[in-house]
Amino acid sequence: MADPPALRDRLRALTQARVLLGRAGQGLPTRALLDFQLDHARARDAVHAAFEPARVAAALVRPVIEVRSQAGGRHEYLRRPDLGRLLHPDDIASLAATGDTLAIIIADGLSATAVHAHAAPLVAALLARLAGWRIAPIVLAHQGRVALGDAIGAALGVELAVMLIGERPGLSAPDSLGAYLTWQPRPGRQDSERNCVSNIRPPHGLGYDAAADTIVQLLVAARRLRLTGVSLKPGADAPPPLTS
């Protein structure tokens, strides 16, 4: 049987979860407590971090369009999720339909830290796999929730939208990026009508190539089946049969 230090080290090599922290009386050891406080601070910082669209745009190789939600600032965004789902009326005119098939939208969400770290490399991996697709200019969205992509995709007139957005930070994952796919995006779409590829954050989460492979597989299947959501699974050629 492995001794406790060896077992602890083996488990910690497999997960970022807090395991075998030990005890100091009725509380945690000082090091474990300080690590917890540091991770909590990083998560809070990620939620409140300011989105830097110029930083993201500089790393992309395509034209970009900046838009805003109707949330007037970060504090309102956090208090009013509904406003983060609505496109600012002054920005609608910048999203004219051009006959493209796919929109890629990058929104700060609940972690601009994740967007700054992972959005551009993931977009590069996606574009390398989407040769021949008609892709609209990439949209950078301030104070955005997932459903903001519905209004953006509808304004662009695309068949499919991919929303890359900073996910809610956890105590071990302040920089997790999510990708949400929606067929025929338009206001009023339900979450059940989307597919999500989550925890994109190498080296501790899903890598860019693996994430891009899954996203593109879903996009190809979505065009074939003309749907996204609970009826579309990675690798599926047809929707599952309905059961009573």
In short:
This protein has helices at about 5-15, 30-50, 55-60, 75-80, 110-130, 150-155, 210-225, and strands spanning about 65-70, 100-105, 140, 160-165, 175-185, 195-200. With about 240 residues, the chain is an alpha/beta fold.
Description:
This protein has 244 residues and is of the alpha/beta class. It has a single domain, classed as 3-Layer(aba) Sandwich (Rossmann fold), CATH 3.40.50. 36% of the residues lie in helices and 15% in strands. It is built from seven helices and six strands; from the N terminus they run H-H-H-E-H-E-H-E-H-E-E-E-H. The protein has helices at residues 4-14, 30-48, 53-59, 74-79, 112-129, 148-156, 208-225, and strands at residues 64-68, 102-107, 138-142, 160-166, 177-183, 194-200. It has a six-stranded mixed sheet, with helices on both faces. Helix 5 links the parallel strand 2 (102-107) and strand 3. Helix 3 (53-59) runs parallel beside helix 5 and helix 5 crosses helix 7 (208-225). The longest helix is centred in the first third of the chain and has 19 residues, at 30-48. The radius of gyration is 20 Å and the shape is globular. The termini are far apart.
